[in-house]
Amino acid sequence: MTARHPLTVRVSYRGERLEFQRTPADSVASLTSELSQRTGIESARQRLICSGRVLTNSEQRLSELLARPGASELAMMLIPLEAASSKARRRCSHIQDTVLSWVSFVYAVMYRFFHTLLMPGAYAGKDPRESRERKGAGPDAGDLGRLAAAGLGGG
Q: pTM to 2 decimals?
């Protein structure tokens, strides 16, 4: 195939199809610079995938990427690389979320622990000190009601 025959390059980017008319002798670098103009993604942050391979050699000719000699179409996919600053921001946010989750968990456990020490009746139903004070007294109506509701009432 000579350089005079047009080559249609279709690039998928975020659900959009971009179409370019190039010659087979053009390099991947010339395509990335045109992609940069049309998408706003600088060439250094572009990851082009063609036939399941990531294109790393920017000096590679488009004719070398064709599925068969003489083909007039070439399909690619453009995936923008994440900038280092946004990666760092995302990692920092993840660490912050993890630390806040752990702090919240530790607070809940400590709160529950100290609350049970200060107010045991809130968790056991009755303060154990009350039952010691009225040793000879039988169960009160609340206890019988709970037993009956559970089906454990006698008689």
A: 0.51
